[in-house]
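User: Please predict the structure of the protein below. I'd like the answer in structure-token form so I can feed it into my own downstream comparison script.

Assistant: Understood. Taking the following sequence of 185 residues as input:
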Amino acid sequence: MAAFASVSDLRILHDDEGLDETRAQLILDAVSDQIRDTLGWSVTEENDVTVTLDGPGTEELLLPTLHLTSVTSVTESGRLLVQGDDFLLYRHGMLRRVVSGFPIDWTDRPQGITVLFAHGYPADAVPPVFRAVTLDYAGKMLSNPALVPHSRTVGRVTVSYSDMRAMVPPIDDSRLDTYRLPEGF
């Protein structure tokens, strides 16, 4: 998935014309991945996502997203449901089970519900806070010379001793709290 900020954004922020673009891109990708992991969902647009979930036994089923764009199909205990007749969908990732417009409970069966859906923000509509947080963390990593992937080559064999993603510090930034999935996902 694409990083939330670009190398040119980082170059402008740090006023660094000599920026190592390869290293900068690795850092931006690693920070963006860490943000996604911290929040529990991809944030950027994904189509044809299939999840099989335990039935909650309540009227509301939460999908692993906070920006639901469409639902292609919902199957509950092997029965294909119809949007509007059997469930209602809400943009923040919730499906409400209904019959004739009245709420009823979803199954409580483990792995009882399968949903095919699309979610996330288009690349040009991702909230700006993601770019800001990515640039903040990437800038800190960029200014730390110890955070350079190391490798050793002997003959035609190269061994890498570190993964840039493993070097990203935990991202606990309150600016992202609005976009964090609830506990349990």
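That's the full token string. Strands lie at 46-53, 60-62, 68-76, 79-81, 87-90, 94-99, 102-103, 113-119, 151-154, 157-160.
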